Amino acid sequence: MDSFRNELYFGYKTSEGVPVELLTQFPVLEEMLEGMGVRVWPMVYYEADDALASAAVKASLDEHVSKVFICTPDKDLGQCVVGTRVVQLDRRREVERDEAGVIENLA
C-alpha cells in the first residue's frame, strides 16, 4: 500500500509490518459497508488525510452545509480549518477546534 508520496520521499511510510490478516480485512469491510448503503471512498494511491481534506473543501462549498466537521485528532488536518465553518473535532478528547483553536493549539 504505497502512495505517490513514496515516489517523492525516501523512507515514507508503507504497509510494511502491518499484519496480512489486517490488510486482507479492508476489502471485506468496504464491501460490507457498501452493502449497507454507506458511501465508501477507498484510498489506494492517496491517503485518508487527502480524502478528508478534499471532502471538507467540497462540503464547505455547498451552500446547504452550515458547518463541516473534520473528525480526527491529526494536527496536520488543522490546515483545512477555516474560521468557524470548517472545524476539527477530536472525538477522543471531545474537543472542537475552529481556526483560532488550531492556532492556539500550535503553541
Topology, element by element:
Layout: H1 4-8, H2 20-23, H3 25-35, H4 48-60, E1 68-71, E2 86-90, E3 95-97, H5 99-106
Parallel strand pairs: 1-2
Antiparallel strand pairs: 2-3
User: What about the largest sheet?
Assistant: 3 strands, mixed
Q: What's the count of strands?
A: 3
Class from secondary-structure proportions: alpha+beta
Number of helices: 5
Question: What does this entry look like structurally?
Answer:
The chain has one domain: Rossmann fold. The chain is built from five helices and three strands, in the order ααααβββα. The model has no long low-confidence stretch (mean pLDDT 90). The radius of gyration is 16 Å and the shape is globular. A hairpin with a 4-residue loop joins strand 2 and strand 3. The longest helix has 13 residues. It has 107 residues and is α+β, with helices and mostly antiparallel strands. The protein is 38% helix and 11% strand.
Characteristic terms for this protein:
Rossmann fold, single chain, alpha+beta, 107 residues, 11% strand
Question: In a few lines, what is going on in this structure?
Answer:
By secondary structure, the protein is an alpha+beta fold.
